[in-house]
Amino acid sequence: MIFETHAHYDDEQFDQDRDEILRSMAAGGIGTIVNVSASYDSCRRVVDMVQAYPFMYAAVGVHPDEVGALNEERLEEMRKLCEDPKVVAIGEIGLDYYWDKEAREEQRHWFIRQLELARKLGLPVLIHSREAAADTMEVMKGYGKGLKGVIHCYSYSAEMAKEYVKMGYYIGVGGVVTFKNARKLKETVREIPLTSIVLETDCPYLAPVPYRGKRNSSLYLPYVAEEIAALKQVSFEEVVSQTERNARDLYGLA
Predict the structure, then answer these.
(1) Three-class SS of 185-240
(2) Residue 41: phi, psi to the nearest 5?
(3) Which of 16, 34, 108, 218 is found 20 to 30 A from 204 (Cα to Cα)?
């Protein structure tokens, strides 16, 4: 069964049919889903939401675009949420210089604080990095060594991906790998071992071809697995089984 390592089913785009979609996952070959918070307000929402679905787990964290809502008191509230047994990661956290919605120093401060929280709790991290390659790597080398995690929605060079793999991180691959113009990501998939790749959607965003531009869901992950299989010249089944093993190791799920 496919393991979906990064989804946002609490997003309002799923308000009309969320339960229907989630209850169709097993029939669509999707065995496990990690639902990931992005804003402070969504942290509690994702933890509450996954209680209703035995195959779902939660990640608690605040996206760099939303760190203006954080303070030490709220970080402590997030720590308490992580006591729930269904919370399996801190994320998504990181740096985003594309939107530059929050000051870069503020982003960096809360990125480091959330990495420190993950270390204290013994949880893996889900890293968002957009147009911030050098600064993300600098923070990860300073504060992320020895942690487990995923470089989510990977978009940088194969060489940098190999550096993250050496540090023990997984590379998150989603619908973008099916895009014709995704040359760097395709090269990365070819050059890193399958043992360092996990499947993700970032749904409702970044749907793969042939659904590009539409609302994404975990049910489209077979298209991602097929593209990885073609790039690595292995079977679809090998991609599914190895990435599931990788994700279970990452999240500590037997």
Answers:
(1) HHHHHHHCCHHHEEECCCCCCCCCCCCCCCCCCHHHHHHHHHHHHHHHCCCHHHHH
(2) -65, -30
(3) 108
Outline where the chain has alpha helix (H).
18-22, 40-50, 72-81, 104-121, 133-143, 158-166, 183-191, 221-232, 236-251
Chain segment 221-233, per-residue pLDDT in tens = 999 999 999 999 9
- Look at residue 183 and give its three-state secondary structure: helix
Q: Burial level of 54, CB count in 10 A (0-12/13-18/19+)?
A: exposed
Report phi then psi at 213, rounded to 5.
90, -10
Would you call 123 helix, strand, or coil by DSSP?
A: coil
Rounded Cα distance, 217 and 13, in Å: 11
| Token pair of 12 as six digits | 């309002």
Structure tokens at 114: 């959330």
- What is the Cα–Cα distance from 134 to 149, expressed in whole angstroms? 18
Structure confidence by residue, pLDDT tens digits, 84-124? 999 999 999 999 999 989 999 999 999 999 999 999 999 99
CA dist 246 and 254 (Å) reads 11
Give the number of other Cβ atoms within 10 Å of residue 3's Cβ: 26
CB 126 within 8 A of CB 90: yes
Exposure on the CB side of residue 203, measured as CA atoms within 13 A:
29
Q: Which backbone phi and psi does 109 adopt, to 5 degrees?
A: -60, -50
Within 13 Å of residue 198, how many CA atoms lie on the same side as its CB? 32
